[in-house]
Amino acid sequence: MTSFTRRGFLAASTAASTALLLPTRSRAASDVLSLTATTRTIEVQGRAATVMGLVNGQGGLGLTLDPGQRFRVDLTNALDVETIIHWHGQIPPNAQDGAPNTNPMLMPGEARPYDYATRPGTFWMHAHVPAHEVGLLAAPLIVHSAEDLAADRQEVVMFLHDFSFKAPEEVLAEIMSGIPHEQAAASQNNMQGMGDMQGTDGMGASEMDINDFDFDAYLANDRTLDNPEVVQVERGGRVLLRAVNAAAMTSFWIDLGQISGRLVAVDGEPCQPYTSTRFGFAPGQRLDIEIDMPADGTALPVFALREGARERTGIVLAPPGAAVSRIAGLAESEHPAFSRDMTQETALRAMTPLAARPADRRHMVMLDGAMVPYIWTINGQTVNFHPEVTQVFHRELTHL
């Protein structure tokens, strides 16, 4: 999913098969853009699948905005059920945030206007309804900065999903029933003892806590590795990979093989460059990674590795004439768990850190939960009914 490039020949390089994935850019900052929550059909492992999507006025997925451009969007619900869309990482007025506990649901056939000042970076839009999240109702939201437009690099968006041929409601029912994996029935007796375990101490010994569900496929820009998107790039050129983990339940490693990349922003916030060949992120997170393509013109597979398992997906960055080899969707061995490796997290430093000063208020928050029953709490209560959380977010604070 190529969203932006400065070089003319690269602008024409995107194949027609990926046109529906390109975020749209408005012709003028004063234009009101359109988004529609609807269903669409994709092909997964040779089978047609009906999923959801946020389609822009040109028929593609998502939006790309210019520096300083406001988010002026009319959102229409073309689904036959109510939904609500959240602008993840942006800071709109509360009435436009898209959270179901503070905003009214968008009813079938309803259109709703949005208008707020944007912040630059890699963001995304997604439903705040669990079944719709599993059903792929999401899309990228890229807001360029002036520095982005001046940089001599090509931008490529990699949008990740976990996908099941089962209905989203069926997936959620299995998870909530305490069967996080399709094959878990054989080991159900071993799982029953977990119901009495409290906190992460009881859960830490079980590998099933890494992944809540075994999905049928893992998608990068709506494709699996048996038919990956091949993005044409310049030999020896620089690429900015904007990776978005839009999966409902899966953490990934972005793996560059033998090539080192530079992590320059996390969740839309610039950071001091962190160099590695592998970068981890959880659902909802975004990574901006600068990659210098090999000078010899070879193609570069960019993998997204499912943590704690063998599955992988990805795209291929390929200069003109580069050979693209067939890639298996399963690695030879399991990938490590990102959630148990803090190397990257402890190394990250903000480009513009917060000023050091005393907190105005301190608030202790105890996070807990268990796989059986599948319930997660803050200070012993589910988040929708937690009065202390409401007090924190409704109180005027300068430093928490």
TrEMBL record:
Protein name according to UniProt: Copper oxidase
GO biological process: cell division
InterPro entries: Cu-oxidase-like_N, Cu-oxidase_2nd, Cu-oxidase_fam, Cupredoxin, TAT_signal
Plastocyanin-like domain location: 38-146, 216-295
PROSITE patterns found in the cross-reference section: TAT (PS51318)
Signal peptide boundaries: 1-28
Swiss-Prot/TrEMBL keywords: Capsid protein, Cell cycle, Cell division, Signal, Virion
Matching Pfam families: Cu-oxidase, Cu-oxidase_3
GO molecular function: copper ion binding; oxidoreductase activity
